[in-house]
Amino acid sequence: MESEEMSNFFNLWLSVVVSLCYCYLIGKIIPKGSARLLCLLPVVCLFTLLPLNLSSINLGGTTAFFIAWLANFKLLLFAFGNGPLSSPSLSLPRFLAVGCLPIKIQQNPPPKPYLNSAHNKENPYLTPVNNEMPGRTKPKKGHQTHVNYAIKMITFALLLPVYDYSQHIHPTVMLVLYTCHIYIFLEIMLAMVAALARALLSLELEQQFNEPYLSTSLQDFWGRRWNIMVTSILRPTVYEPVLNICARFVGRKWAPIPAVFGTFVVSALMHELIYFYLGRVRPTWEVTCFFLLHGACLTAEVSLKKALRDKWRFPRVISTPLTVGFVMLTGFWLFFPQLLRCRADKKAFEEYAALVAFFRNVSLCSLRFRC
To answer: Quick one: which of 111, 114, 234, 335 could link to 331 by a disulfide (CB 3.0–4.6 Å)?
Structure first.
């Protein structure tokens, strides 16, 4: 990557840190409400414009996702005393980390009181809930093991050389590879960011992906498995307000239907914005159609479940291939074409090649220096 691009990248993130320090100060002196919102709006506008300073697909796309979408939504919630930035116990370093990174601090439930039993009196170090020794904790549901991440990193590394022979590979196979590439890249990137935040600030963080290829329905895929950080931000900013408004007109039972669809509309617009950062071309609205289609199908799925009262469902061996197949086919049709037209894939692979060449040169220089 060019030195000018890296300079822009560091200056951009310096601006983000300074802006978030200002937001932290505003939170201390301005009460929540419209006054705080007015003070934070310049930062929201700045975060929307900053990604335009980057032309790199990897740096620009990642930065746009982190600050133009997630950070801005967190700040809008913070203006009204909601969201992950509104916890009064957040120190400035943690406020900065939660504000600009795709992480969410895990809220642990308060410990239950010890049971007054002879067994516990004899074994005071046993936990009251599951009588297990401290330190022998089971892996949290949805959190990936180191072996899992190692396999995905190896898979990602093996995918890169394949693209050199893309002209000899069927286009449908290439789309499947792109799907795997995007998923693995996102999961590894978010896991690395979370690991860094966890190590530096001793944070226990929520999961970000939960094996989306095992989804049994669209509700399971979008709500519980795919990019859970986005789901956790869209829920308080879009879903819950729309739900509360619609509950007055259609009742609490059916209010989730328009709330779900409204959430997909906002997600579609934010994806269009990120696509603009990547390609700098006028939107074709294919990505919007992708999310509107999924929003309509998901609302139909939720309506059907409510009508059947969850009495009948497909077995997992059928529902999982149907769900994953539907997501991939609609992605081939509507999600990828705009990316491919602006040559985002080619630019990304050129950046990977430049990065590999950089580390190779650094390794050779270090070896020569030792010799």
So the answer is: 335
